[in-house]
């Protein structure tokens, strides 16, 4: 199983003003594969809190994948990409580029996304949009890549469908 943490970053959701519908959308998509959601939290859009959770989940809990939801737009209050970038040891720009490229086809505003992706220790961290449709569309774009990425990062075999591709 691939251990996944979902971190929702939203001031309004953290205050309980709105529900986290994106989490439910991701839970459905992940249920179809070798994924186990072991960590979930909603926090306000505060860089120190974002970095604290990413550090704990990657370093202490040893999650395979952390998906952050929200806080990747151009607004002054969206800090997830910067906070995430500070926690990464290696960036994986192709993941974020693929998300933007493919989701742009459904929603041209995807081009304004600032999400990043990369690795901390043996954990893949990916920023996703905070809306239910945008997060689900983004996850579906990269879902076929995640088992291979986890296998390469962790060095342990991960059961997944062979895609026939190789970089070797």
UniProtKB/TrEMBL annotation:
Pathway: Cofactor biosynthesis; molybdopterin biosynthesis. It comes from the Bacteria. One of its GO terms (molecular function) is molybdopterin adenylyltransferase activity. It is an enzyme of class 2 (transferase). GO terms for biological process: Mo-molybdopterin cofactor biosynthetic process. Residues 5-149 form the MoaB/Mog domain. Its EC number is 2.7.7.75. This is Molybdopterin adenylyltransferase.
């Amino acid at each position: 199983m691939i251990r996944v943490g979902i971190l929702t970053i939203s001031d309004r959701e953290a205050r309980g003003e709105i529900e986290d519908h994106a989490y439910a959308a991701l839970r459905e998509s992940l249920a179809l594969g070798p994924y186990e959601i072991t960590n979930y939290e909603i926090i306000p859009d505060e860089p120190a809190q974002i970095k604290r959770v990413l550090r704990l989940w990657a370093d202490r809990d040893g999650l395979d994948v952390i998906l952050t939801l929200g806080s990747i737009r151009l607004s002054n209050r969206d800090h997830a990409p910067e906070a995430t970038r500070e926690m990464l040891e290696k960036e994986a720009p192709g993941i974020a580029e693929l998300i933007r490229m493919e989701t742009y086809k459904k929603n041209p505003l995807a081009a304004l996304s600032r999400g990043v992706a990369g690795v901390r220790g043996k954990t893949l961290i990916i920023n996703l949009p905070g809306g239910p449709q945008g997060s689900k569309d983004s996850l579906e774009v990269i879902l076929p890549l995640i088992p291979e990425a986890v296998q390469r990062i962790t060095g342990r075999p991960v059961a997944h469908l062979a895609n026939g591709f190789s970089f070797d």
